[in-house]
Design brief:
By secondary structure, the protein is α+β, with helices and mostly antiparallel strands. 35% of the residues are buried.
Length: 231
């Protein structure tokens, strides 16, 4: 694996939000102007702009995309959080789609106010990428992992361990974007994909993996070590 280049941290707007932000700004401005002119009110136009501007700022915040770099060159056997959010599941489950055995599942729920860019949790090579249509249950529900629309990314680490990362759509999220490509090398610090408006990411690890987070803990994508793989 090549050495990752370190750069200064900064924040930009994710490219997935470009169209939404442009059209959203036009729509919000038009609605504010229409309401101001349509109602006989003494409320000044700037008040409408303030209210709708606050709504726009929430959407703008959602599409922020911090450029992050893991704080260590040594990533061997480390599993890093693929997303910002809250740890909602740490448990052993039967994984019968690919592994056909028990796996340790760690799930991170992203609220509307979290960064929604996703990062690769490990260094390695993308074994395959598969997308499945499905329902849109609330993302924190257990059945969401299998029944909701989701994208599965299998990554083989340099040591030969297969790690499954699953992007899951939620009740609000209706679009999963996956940048991972089959056969490509991948690294911590690189974007795996993006999920729009509230969602969840599951990571399936070998049983016996050392867990480094707790239930309810908040994670920072590409920064928080969530587990350490065994030799």
């Amino acid at each position: 694996m090549g050495k990752r280049i370190k750069k200064l941290k900064k924040i930009r707007i994710h490219r997935e939000g470009t169209d939404t932000l442009i059209y959203g700004f036009i729509l919000i401005a038009a609605i504010a102007l229409l309401l101001h002119r349509s109602f006989d009110t003494k409320i000044p136009f700037w008040a409408f702009v303030t209210v709708f501007g606050a709504v726009y700022c929430v959407v703008l915040n959602f599409f922020r995309c911090p450029i992050r770099y893991f704080n260590s060159e040594d990533t061997e056997k480390l599993v890093v959080a693929p997303a910002d959010g809250k740890v909602v599941v740490i448990e052993e489950v039967e994984e019968n789609e690919y592994f056909h055995d028990r796996r340790l599942m760690i799930s991170i729920f992203m609220s509307l106010f979290n960064v929604h860019a996703n990062w690769f949790p490990v260094d390695g090579q993308v074994k395959f990428v598969r997308h499945f249509n499905g329902n849109f249950h609330k993302a924190w529900l257990p059945k969401a992992s299998e029944e909701n629309e989701h994208a599965d990314i299998m990554i083989t680490t340099p040591e030969g361990t297969d790690i499954l990362c699953r992007q899951i759509a939620g009740a609000v999220a209706r679009r999963i974007v996956t940048y991972a490509k089959e056969g490509e090398e991948c690294f911590i610090d690189e974007h795996l994909g993006f999920i729009k408006f509230g969602s969840r990411v599951d990571v399936y690890l070998p049983v016996g993996t050392e867990v480094c987070v707790k239930m309810g803990q908040y994670t920072t994508g590409d920064q928080t070590v969530i587990a350490k793989l065994k030799a």
